[in-house]
Amino acid sequence: MVLPKYLIKDGGGKKASERTDPFSWMIDGFSTIANRGAASYYSGSFTACGITWKLQLQSVLEEGSEKYVGLYLSLDNSDSKNSLIKETYKLFIYDQIQGEHIQKEGEDYFHSTSLDGCCCKIALDKFNSPKSGLLVNDCCIFGVDVLEASAFKLDKKRISESLSLNKDLTPRTYTWEIKDVSKLNQIVLYSETFDAGGYNWTIWLYPKLGTNKNLLVVVLDLDDAASLAPKTSVYVEYSLCLLDQHNDQNWEWTGFFDFAPFSPRRRSKFLSWNYVQDPSRGFLLNDTCIVEATVVVLGVDTIA
What is the pTM of this model? Predict the structure, then answer.
């Protein structure tokens, strides 16, 4: 058996605590809480491997059309401050007839915004069955055996990458009308610059891509890419749209992208000119096409 130990890792120092016995939680009168529906219940706090924990029980855990009893190991919030805790443990539900456990071994990371680990679940029908031994005389026993815990001190100086997300996610839509399409001879067309999320953007249009004259490509370009700080990118949700002026059945390409100095622009999928010129579709009306770009700047990503 692996002996539990608690390691504090901060600049290489570490120490191990003494072995911790498994924690058992008996619930007598389980039907009282089960009849209340899909609610969560917590055991009292207990210490294992030098860290304070609780067990969380969901008497009715619904996943699709199936119902389960779910058991989680939860980190006590007071132990999560300024630490990232890696834990190896076994959750178990005791079979009182066979004298054995239904168990699940897990390994998780716990911190201030993620206090619950993996779930040991059992189908509700099986749990309630008199033959299973999991619920006997309305009494059940849950538990956890903590095998190993490691706490890593959170230090901003050691963060490898930081993503700062915006709270204002107002989309900016820019519409570009291109006239006399049949007379275009340029390799690439550029829209006017427009602002979105505090950055300047341009739409590029390739009416005839390279040697293949039957392809149309639309590109979203970050004009400010060269002025970004080193190892910095702008994380964006975007859409590029070719408007159907007749049927209102627009062609649209959407996605997420990190715009950076080494990757300042994002292409749409190639689009056939035969498809664009099909008179039944309305992409070309009076020899005019309309391209729209919608940009939402989600945040800025910086690599240390």
Answer: 0.51
